[in-house]
Design goal:
single chain, disordered N terminus, 25% strand, alpha/beta, globular, two-stranded antiparallel sheet, binds zinc ion, Glucose Oxidase, domain 1, 8 helices, 12 strands
Length: 261
């Protein structure tokens, strides 16, 4: 009976249907962060990984439950943000990145179909121009997310990074932003943040990290190790990327959420 009433209401009053979908807001939220755990991937040269140590777990003498842990980790592992200061002295540290930079509209460039067997693939300027020919010019101050499909390989280090040799970062293979594309996006399209579903905005074989240097010099932070980018529309998802607020930090873990239009 109640269901029937709802159906009649929805038919008579479309505004009711809209209000209900707004109420069910959790359906339109997408989590773009991996969880931190013992499998969380770090750069092969990282001295430590995510550590989560129990301080208390169980029933207290007073009869109630109580749990608490300590955690520690290098700044750059898991789903994290690079503050511009990571590669550009004098640019924003983690706590200095304005909230206006961390929240904004996403543009998703999907290169997963272009990569094929080439794990060293880099987004080219031609790729960006081809994207714009199809979808229109990338709006100023967009958050530019590059989808490679690499998230499916998480958390297998060998598949995701290309190599799982501890202490050796010379044999890494995964896609990234190319130098010309990065310069164009930062300088001509004035994007305010970059993001990618791999371990680095530069591709795995990079030795001089041009994407890091170009973007961070321009105070454009980078989101790394994102996931679920395939659930986003090409343009229009609202991104909220709030990192831990470490004063003077060069980066840190970030919970990235997309609100779908
Ligand atoms: Zn980083």
């Amino acid at each position: 009976m109640r269901a029937l009433l709802v159906i009649v209401m929805l038919a008579l009053f479309p505004a009711v249907a809209k209000a209900q979908s707004m109420e069910q807001g959790s359906h339109s939220l997408v989590d773009l962060s991996h969880a931190y755990n013992q499998e969380t991937l770090y750069w092969p040269t990282s001295p430590t990984r995510f550590e989560h140590d129990e301080l208390a777990f169980g029933i207290t003498p007073g009869g109630w439950f109580y749990s608490a842990y300590s955690f520690s980790m290098p700044e750059h592992g898991g789903t994290h943000i690079d503050a511009p200061m990571h590669f550009a002295e004098g640019r924003w540290a983690l706590d200095e990145i304005p909230l206006e930079t961390l929240i904004g509209t996403a543009v998703v460039i999907d290169i997963s179909h272009l990569i094929g067997d080439d794990a060293d693939y880099r987004l080219s300027l031609a790729d960006v121009l081809a994207f714009e020919a199809k979808h229109g010019q990338i709006p100023e101050h967009s958050i530019l997310l590059l989808m490679t499909g690499w998230s499916e390989r998480w958390p297998n280090a060998r598949d995701y990074l290309g190599d799982d040799t501890p202490g050796d970062a010379s044999n890494l293979h995964f896609p990234g932003f190319g130098e010309d594309a990065t310069r164009f996006l930062v300088e001509e399209r004035r994007v305010k943040m970059l993001g990618i579903d791999t371990a680095s905005i530069d591709y795995g074989q990079s030795a001089d990290f041009p994407a890091h240097r170009i973007a961070y010099e321009a105070n454009v932070p980078g989101l790394e190790n994102l996931t679920n980018l395939h659930l986003l529309p090409v343009i229009g998802a609202m991104i909220v990327a709030l990192p831990i607020k470490i004063e003077g930090g060069s980066g840190g873990p970030v919970r990235v959420v997309a609100m779908l239009p």
